[in-house]
From TrEMBL:
Transmembrane segments: none
Keyword Chaperone carried by entry: yes
Protein name from the UniProt record: GTP-binding protein
Domain CobW/HypB/UreG nucleotide-binding: 5-186
Family label: Belongs to the SIMIBI class G3E GTPase family. ZNG1 subfamily.
Alphabetized UniProt keyword annotations: Chaperone, Hydrolase, Nucleotide-binding
Catalytic activity: GTP + H2O = GDP + phosphate + H(+)
Source species of the chain: Teichococcus aerophilus
Function: Zinc chaperone that directly transfers zinc cofactor to target proteins, thereby activating them. Zinc is transferred from the CXCC motif in the GTPase domain to the zinc binding site in target proteins in a process requiring GTP hydrolysis.
Record PANTHER family: COBW DOMAIN-CONTAINING PROTEIN (PTHR13748:SF62), COBW-RELATED (PTHR13748)
Amino acid sequence: MSRIPITLVTGFLGSGKTTLIAQLLTQPGLAGTLVVVNEFGVVGIDHDLLEASSDDTILLANGCLCCTIRGNLVDTLLDVQAQVADGRLRAFDRVVVETSGVADPAPLLGFLLSDAAVMARYRLEQVIATIDAVAGAEALERHPEADHQARVADRLLLTKTDLVTPAAADALAARLRGLNPVAPILPVLQGQIAAEELLGPGSAQDATAPCGPFCGDPSHAHEHHHHAERFSATVLHATQTLEEADIARIEAALRAWAGPHLLRLKGILPLRDGRVAILQAAMMVVHPAEFQPGPAHAAGRLVLIVEGPAPAPLLQALEGFGLERDGVG
Ligand SMILES: Nc1nc2c(ncn2[C@@H]2O[C@H](COP(=O)(O)OP(=O)(O)OP(=O)(O)O)[C@@H](O)[C@H]2O)c(=O)[nH]1
């Protein structure tokens, strides 16, 4: 059974998460989506769109399902699977989770990645953050949650650019690039974006993104480390293919070091046998590596987002596997 991809949509209060998701749901490709939201109705669902409901899960006319988080996200994700299994809920092939605007997504990623039952049925595809061009800079300044949301995202969506000058939007984009040098920044008006542009394999596996976490173009002057910042983003390039046993050793090195200082780690490492190993971690959780058939000439990358500078002993250990730091911190 193939695992169901999860896209986490994070972003500060009022930054346009609901607008984005509601717009995505109108697109035919997303008909089999289950949307999980924090509060009933936050997806702004027009009641005409509602077709049926079971417990607190509602079926929208376009075929999407929408449910509210009961207890915690892990319980909800397992519960909806149980509902599908016993026929109470129609099957779904994608999950979009709208997190609370004030939630720090890093612990949430940790919970997801650490739950074996969830990870057996689902896979974390990507994290999208909406950043409000009007209020975003202040939110980043005042709220560590907003800062974390921007740092851990695979894609940053700059919303409400119609309400600010191009110079202000550029200044915020530059700031975001400083916080998260590896995520592409996409301006989105009223949530209007083609699902294909946004969803899909996710950056951890998306070696072809124009300038994503795995941007390999040396002409892109990413600033990967910021001494003045509390956090650093470090990108390591794979200079060689690896054996499965090497991946186990890399996981062990990461486990020895993971902790609350680790906001997020994502990696795609090519193996000698043509597969790739996908690594993901957040906080103290290092999810067991997943092995997939790799795209030909997959460019291996590992991105570390940590509080403080990336620890030298870990970088040294990773260097032993041919993972070389991209740029100087
Ligand atoms: N002008 C303008 N308004 C927008 C845009 N995107 C969203 N909005 C408006 O911003 C307001 C907040 O958007 P929401 O989608 O509810 O934001 P949210 O992140 O889901 O908010 P919370 O659920 O409170 O965290 C709504 O009134 C939207 O219509 C945009 O690109 N331009």
